[in-house]
Design brief:
By secondary structure, the protein is an alpha/beta fold. It is built from twelve helices and ten strands. The longest helix has 23 residues.
Length: 336
């Protein structure tokens, strides 16, 4: 079913969780979501799943290229620069997607999690250093994009990264927008000063409002007016409340962990830690319900805070049914 949205409709993007689906299935689901009316597709760069039972972690750039062939909307990749992949390699991958699909690609950078990035054997730094590396990587990629669009080589010698006479030879006419994940007001403000947008995890309204305000302040500091604020929202929907609870506990118990999971190194460790999670822990953080009005109200509340775009991830494997009911009974009623 194709949904026709009005001028005030927000951007709602479908998250294809590559931890949960084989590459061909992720591409099929993205194509289905695109036809149904989602404005874009979102995939994340993972080297391991969160849980052994999820069973997948394909290479994000290959999957995103295939998704682009089957869809017409925006293509967002959430990537980590500076551990498994140097910022120059991430920039090259992003530029290639943008060249293949002009005007459709967005790059999101995050500080990363040990479960993915520790595999190359380097020291896993503390959070402040991870933030510093994130913003230096952002600067490196921005330099590469800007220089390569003009056909110039660029150099960089920083605390964490170096570039020597580098340019991206396959480059679109305009560089893709570069957004940054932010978990606190300091990183949110820095993202506003230097990036084209921010992405935050859905959480308490007061926390998200503070992050959004810090981001807007940072944008104003540098006179930027076009930066995009995005929120990543997880939900658990199924035809019954009991089924929604069961899939949340089975598929995404990480949502209920009471501590950050960025330092955990193994899916088997996550599995052990998640065994203490209860459905009340998960309900405290994401909506778990068969009632579509619950999910509509949750997403509308995020938009009412002032976010421009919502990335929606239903945590179950029931994606066909979710796409059908969401685009029929939720998406048409969301407004910005």
């Amino acid at each position: 079913m194709q949904v026709v949205r009005g001028m005030t409709s927000p951007e709602i993007h479908f998250v294809a969780a590559l931890e949960q689906f084989e590459p061909a299935e992720a591409v099929r689901l993205a194509a289905l979501a695109d036809r149904a009316g989602f404005a874009g597709m979102v995939v994340a760069d993972r080297f391991q799943p969160w849980l052994p039972s999820q069973g997948n972690a394909p290479f994000v750039w290959t999957v995103l290229g295939a998704i682009g062939q089957q869809t017409a909307g925006l293509l967002t990749a959430s990537a980590v620069a500076g551990f498994r992949m140097h910022p120059a390699a991430v920039a090259q991958a992003s530029a290639t997607v943008a060249a293949l699909y002009p005007g459709r690609h967005r790059l999101v950078l995050s500080a990363g999690d040990a479960i993915d990035e520790h595999v190359v054997g380097g020291y896993w730094p503390e959070a402040p250093e991870r933030a510093a590396r994130l913003f230096e990587a952002t600067d490196v990629i921005r330099k590469l994009f800007a220089g390569s669009v003009k056909g110039n080589d660029v150099r960089h010698a920083g605390e964490h990264f170096r570039l020597e006479t580098a340019r991206i030879w396959t480059m679109p006419d305009a560089a893709p927008p570069l957004q940054v994940w932010a978990g606190g007001p300091v990183t949110a403000r820095r993202a506003g000063r230097g990036g084209d947008g921010i992405v935050v995890q859905a959480g308490p309204a007061t926390r998200m409002a503070a992050l959004l305000a810090a981001f807007r302040d940072g944008s104003r500091d540098t006179g930027r007016t076009q930066a995009t604020a995005t929120v990543h929202a997880q939900v658990s929907w199924a035809p019954t409340d009991a089924a929604a609870e069961q899939q949340a506990l089975r598929e995404w118990p990480m949502a209920g962990l009471r501590f950050p999971r960025g330092d955990i190194r193994s899916p088997f460790d996550v599995d052990q830690l998640a065994r203490s999670v209860t459905i009340d822990d998960i309900r405290a953080r994401i909506p778990v319900s068969a009632d579509l009005d619950v999910h509509r109200a949750h997403l509308q509340a995020l938009l009412d805070l002032g976010f421009d775009t919502v990335h929606v991830h239903n945590v179950g494997r029931n994606q066909d049914a979710w796409i059908d009911v969401f685009t029929r009974d939720v998406l048409p009623h969301l407004t910005k």
